[in-house]
Amino acid sequence: MEAAPEDQTEGVSWGCYSTLLPGAYGVQVNAGPQNTGNAVAGCADAGHAAKLANNYWLNGYNDWYLPSKDELNLMYQQREQLGSFADGTQDATRKYLPQRVRAIRSFLMMVSLSCSLA
């Protein structure tokens, strides 16, 4: 995973307070893209956190999303390499309360193996 080098905002709501967004609540690693996509599709609120992350572009990449709970925890464990922006706090909060937003993206490292037959 790669974290954006800076927050996309100092504070914005998660969006769609009191609206259930099916498929946008996965906590496991790799759930972030699906959560973000479903939140964008199901929430018409302007400028909410998922839209900010989904619309983020950096260095030619536009595949950014909000991290799931477990992805956020992995990032916290690697905070020294990511710039120490996370404090490790994970708790429930109201969706209408403004929170900082920092998008992440995932990428696969391709490894090329070669072998020769003797």
Describe this structure in words.
The structure is a single chain. By secondary structure, this protein is of the alpha+beta class. The chain has one domain. The chain is 25% helix and 9% strand. A two-stranded antiparallel sheet has the order 1-4. Strands 2-3 form a two-stranded antiparallel sheet. It starts with a strand and ends in a 13-residue tail after the last strand. The model is unreliable at 109-116 (pLDDT under 50).
Helix-strand pattern, N to C? EEHHHHEE
What count of helical segments does DSSP give?
4
Mean pLDDT: 84
Shape: globular
Low-confidence stretches: 109-116
State the helicity in percent bands: 25-40%
Question: Between the first and last Cα atoms, what is the distance in angstroms?
Answer: 39 Å
* Number of beta-strand segments: 4
Main sheet characteristics: 2 strands, antiparallel
Write a concise keyword list for the protein shown above.
118 residues; alpha+beta; two-stranded antiparallel ribbon; two-stranded antiparallel sheet; 4 helices; 4 strands; disordered C terminus
In short:
Helix content is 25%, strand content 9%. The chain is an alpha+beta fold and 118 residues long.
